[in-house]
Amino acid sequence: MTTVAIFGAAGSMGTRAWRALKERPGYELLLVEAGDAGPAKLRERGLEPADSHEAAARADVVLLAVPDALLAGIAANVVPHMRSGAMAMCLDPAAPYAGILPRRDDISYFVTHPTHPPLFGDETDPDARRDFFGSGLAKQSIVSALMQGSEDDYAQGEAIARDLFGPILRSHRVTVEQMALLEPALSETVAATCVTVIREAMDEAVRRGVPPEAARDFLLGHVRIELAIVFGELDWQFSVGAKRAIEEARGVLFRPDWRRVFDPEELRASVERIAGVRCEPAP
């Protein structure tokens, strides 16, 4: 039996965590919330909140399912009470990458994050096809990093991550630094920004007179096939005219040095804004 203390158990990620693990054999769950609203929300669901320090001391694994901006303060209050040999698990790389987790040589630190179900998946069930986040219906992959600990610790952390985010398509092992390149740099700084601009472009076409339903159907259909071409899902090429339009638009839409968002100093600045803390200097 593995005792998992879920901090932030009434929040969206914490709720997802205990709902996933309670369906799996071999787990004892301790649900922790702070203040008045969180524990009250747990009790409304028929769940009894656990004392923070007692849960930290009992747990084999402390799962920090809390917002990035709060993680540093919560970890500083929780980690000192963990028993030797236990694991602290984070669900986002921002705080670990920032170097703000409390230093303890006698515990392990494991970081994991879901990729969410792929755009080009093979789900046939209608509900699974609408499972965009990966809430247990559609297959998704995970990325995991062992920040501190042994190979046995990695195996334990990955097994829990599989139970948290399953069904699993693939499990990828990366470093904390590589995970930070994936998020925020790749998935948020670049991809989410580009997707937001795409939506704003559709709205602009509508503002200029295109019927909204026509603009949406036309754009999403073209985005799908364009992504299929660019990512090799389709053996096809853009037309000569499309290639010319892409090259001409690059200088209008993007700065020539946009790739600097992946540079260490830019990445640290981004993480500092997300986590609300100053990154520790890189060793």
Strand-helix topology:
Layout: E1 2-7, H1 12-22, E2 27-32, H2 37-44, H3 52-58, E3 61-64, H4 68-78, E4 87-90, H5 94-98, E5 108-114, H6 126-129, E6 140-148, H7 151-165, E7 168-173, H8 176-207, H9 212-230, H10 240-253, H11 264-275
Parallel strand pairs: 1-2, 1-3, 3-4, 4-5, 6-7
Antiparallel strand pairs: 5-6
Describe the structure.
The chain has about 280 residues and is an alpha/beta fold. The chain has eleven helices and seven strands. It has helices at about 10-20, 35-45, 50-60, 70-80, 95-100, 125-130, 150-165, 175-205, 210-230, 240-255, 265-275, and strands spanning about 1-5, 25-30, 60-65, 85-90, 110-115, 140-150, 170-175. The longest helix is centred in the C-terminal third of the chain and has 32 residues, at about 175-205. The chain is globular and about 65 Å long. The chain starts with a strand and ends in an 8-residue tail after the last helix. The model has no long low-confidence stretch (mean pLDDT about 95).
